[in-house]
Specification:
Blueprint (H helix, E strand, L loop, with lengths): L1 H32 L14 H7 L8 E4 L3 E8 L3 E8 L7
Antiparallel strand pairs: 1-2, 2-3
């Protein structure tokens, strides 16, 4: 009888562990799509071609700041909207 109870207990534990792993994976998949800090539809993603057009291909005249990590450009998009783009230096030490 104790062998049966041990087997049942092992199966229950195994099912709990598998259930937890499936739950965690589904939650990770959902977290990739949803950012809990930003309301849906608040932010817009821009393509590289849109950013290049807005900053006139990263024109020197569009630079508003230069720092240790690179340059910040100001651009215009969608009939007068402002856009600020940080362009990281290619060889930053990270220190």
């Amino acid at each position: 009888m104790s062998h049966i109870m041990g087997a049942v207990s092992a199966i229950v534990v195994l099912l709990c562990v598998l259930g937890f792993l499936v739950f965690r994976q589904r939650r990770r998949d959902k977290d990739i799509d949803d950012d809990p800090f930003l309301p849906s539809g608040l932010c817009r993603e821009f393509s590289l071609s849109e950013i290049k057009a807005a900053t006139r291909n990263f024109n020197e005249g569009s630079i508003i700041s230069v720092g240790g990590f690179g340059r910040v450009y100001k651009g215009s998009i969608d009939a007068g909207g402002s856009l600020f783009i940080g362009k990281e230096k290619a060889s930053h030490d990270g220190g």
